[in-house]
Design goal:
Shape: globular
Structural class: mainly alpha
Oligomer: single chain
Number of helices: 7
Number of strands: 0
Strand content: under 5%
């Protein structure tokens, strides 16, 4: 009988997607486009992973990028990850948000004349970095 009261997976997914959408809605406009570029996905994918009406879950491999690009506060991050882990309990131990010993670099960019150019440059840099990392990881095997 207790199992009947537990929310199903779709409800749990909708909860964290609603929370993520609400966090994004409190940020400046253009964040969905910035996320799409950072994840190398189409903007419609961002709509799907932030709309609780769609069953598409947020891929575990995209979590760190999403958390970073959205600039979630520590409390927002904790709450979102708690909701995510409730919906995907098997992913929690494996998702490995930022592996130990991982390196982070920051690149200062100049002010660009428009947001579209800034987003395009940032996307190109992220794409290049992801390709270089994949190449380096293949060489280590």
């Amino acid at each position: 009988m207790v199992e009947a009261l537990a929310p199903d997976r779709a409800t749990l997914v909708a909860r964290y997607k609603t929370y993520l959408r609400d966090c994004i809605d409190r940020r400046p406009s253009g964040l969905r486009q910035k996320l799409a570029l950072a994840l190398d996905k189409h903007k419609s994918f961002i709509s799907q992973i932030t709309n609780p009406a769609y069953p598409v879950p947020v891929p575990a491999g995209d979590l760190e990028t999403i958390l970073e690009v959205c600039h979630l506060s520590p409390e927002e991050r904790r709450r979102f990850l708690a909701l995510y882990d409730a919906a995907h309990p098997r992913e929690a131990p494996r998702r490995g948000v930022r592996a130990a010993g991982a390196h982070r670099i920051h690149i200062d960019l100049p002010a660009f004349p428009d947001v579209a150019t800034a987003l395009e440059v940032e996307g190109l840099i992220r794409d290049f970095a992801a390709r270089v990392i994949r190449l380096a990881q293949r060489r280590q095997r």
